[in-house]
Structures are given as C-alpha cells and as structure tokens.
C-alpha cells in the first residue's frame, strides 16, 4: 500500500472504517465508480476538484 497516493490510502481507510463500498462513495461524492477505482488503485491522479469532492464527502461522515 506504500505505492498508493495519500488520497487513495485515505479513501481505502475511510471505506473500511465506515463499512462503505465504492458505489456508496461514488454516490456520496458525485464521482463515477470508475473514477473511484482509478483513484484508489493510483491508475490516475485525482484532479483538485475530485480531491475536494472526496474530502468533503469523507468529512461529512
């Protein structure tokens, strides 16, 4: 997990701690499930807007 971005690590921990899956995070953050997968796997870097949406969603829980 060391090769994952900080956001990816936060997202994985958040899902685990809150018993959520990618679909629920996608719905709550208004991002697609595919983008959540890409960000979590570090296949692509989240844009600043995507990062803000994810952080706002994680802080709301």
Structure characterization notes:
With 61 residues, this protein is an all-alpha fold. The chain has four helices and no strands. It has helices spanning 6-18, 22-29, 33-41, 48-60. Helix 2 (22-29) crosses helix 3. The longest helix is centred in the N-terminal third of the chain and has 13 residues, at 6-18. The radius of gyration is 10 Å and the shape is globular. The protein starts with 5 loop residues before the first helix and ends with a helix.
Could you outline the blueprint of secondary structure elements for this entry?
Elements: H1 6-18, H2 22-29, H3 33-41, H4 48-60
Protein name: LBP_cg2779 family protein
InterPro entries: LBP_cg2779-like
């Amino acid at each position: 997990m060391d090769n994952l971005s900080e956001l990816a690590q936060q997202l994985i921990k958040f899902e685990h701690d809150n018993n959520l899956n990618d679909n629920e995070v996608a719905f709550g953050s208004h991002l697609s499930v595919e983008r959540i997968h890409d960000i979590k796997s570090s296949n692509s870097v989240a844009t600043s807007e995507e990062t803000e949406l994810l952080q706002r969603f994680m802080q709301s829980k």
